[in-house]
Amino acid sequence: MISVTQKLRIMESLDALDQTQSEKVLAYIRSMVNNQRDEDQYKRFKREAMKEIRKALKTNRSLTLQA
Q1: Is residue 5 part of a domain?
Q2: Is residue 6 part of a domain?
Q3: Burial code of 4-30, b = ≥16 C-beta within 10 A, e = fewer?
Q4: How confident is the model at residue 13 (pLDDT cuts 50, 70, 90)?
């Protein structure tokens, strides 16, 4: 957990940046957020795919056992 002092130091260092440096920091933060969003979306898709595969396998097994 970040302490108040650490937060203040971060804020002061951000205030000291020039326009170019600020844009680079912002671009980096955006890329991190987008990567996290992509990762979350991938995990959600994978979870749903695994549910569908389990469902299909259960249905296939029950059909095979009835034959």
Answers
A1: no
A2: no
A3: eeeeeeeeeeeeeeeeeeeeeeeeeee
A4: confident
pLDDT in tens, 38-56: 888 889 999 999 999 888 8
d(CA 28, CA 23): 9
Is residue 17 within 8 Å of 25, Cβ to Cβ? yes
DSSP assigned state of 1:
-
Structure tokens at 25: 């920091």
In a domain, 39, yes or no: yes
Residue whose pair of structure tokens reads 């970040």 in the numeric block = 2
Residue 56 domain flag: yes
